[in-house]
Amino acid sequence: MGIVVGHVAQGLGFLLVGLWHLFNHAKLHAQRPNSFNSSPWFPSPFFARHLELYLIMAATSTFISTELFLGQTSHQPLDPDGTIPYNHLHNFEHSTISFSFFAYAALAVVFDRVLRPPAREALTQSLAALAFAQELLLFHLHSTDHVGVEGRYHALLQLVVFVSVVTTLMGIRYPGSFLTGFVRSVSVAFQGVWLVVLGVMIWTPSLVPKGCALYREEGRLVTRCDSQGALDRAKSLANLQFCWVSWGMAILAVVFYLVVVKLYGGGGGGGEAANRRYEAANEEDDDDVEEYYWMKTRNELETKRFLQMGIMSSTVSVSKDLER
């Protein structure tokens, strides 16, 4: 798989999952603002309940096969002595990241369909956090360039992955927090967009920054700049692009949320109206409960008073009989 195509394909996968989660979080919050509960994955109304998880497993399996076997000239990534050559380390790193998400999706299916343990939601969240954490670790300790233009794009990607790790962990402790789920969804979609930007801007010859060019080193294409000034300029352009994409994602997420609330929240104020109805129902229930316990207490007091009067009457009667 080509470098550009590989990054774009991965990016589109993250983007679709992020938008799917963003849609479901917004829809659930619009419909049930007071009983909202976040989830690491969402059942699909089409074909199969676990369609999201199956697609993750299929995409990661395809990517691993391409990275390690189909994309290699010899159709295997190892040296004749069975060791991993230096120029294939990045293939194993990328495949390990994909495997972590494959394992998360597979175990999520097992938890929901086979075993269904009481802590399945927390366990699934923990596995998702582990997958994001492993992605962050391998990008941070990547075997390829850390100081060039490619390294700057990957360093900025790590910021987004870090947000995904933190919000996923927070989802274990605060499953009812809409903001936690919302930010996590946006961060996953942001990962996808930035992977597309990274692949296109770094490995498209016509888009390589001025003063830099593509060179083939150790079997892969890398971007090298002719001077320190050109390198500094290319890194600054990456920083600017990240800021622009950040605001673009923020605006897209807010607009997306408002549209979903408009569609599923009863026309703009649906969420607030549902909130008022929910609170009113709770107030009515509280009144009923208070009235029930007041009536129960009154009846108990009356019964106790009646028994006391009966006992006193019996005592008086017995005393009179003795006097006689």
TrEMBL record:
The chain crosses the membrane at residues 6-23, 153-174, 186-204, 244-264. It is a multi-pass membrane protein. GO terms for cellular component: membrane. The keyword Membrane applies. InterPro entries: DUF716 (IPR006904). It is found in: Membrane. Keywords: Membrane, Transmembrane, Transmembrane helix. The keyword Transcription does not apply. Belongs to the TMEM45 family. This is Uncharacterized protein. It comes from Aristolochia fimbriata (White veined hardy Dutchman's pipe vine).
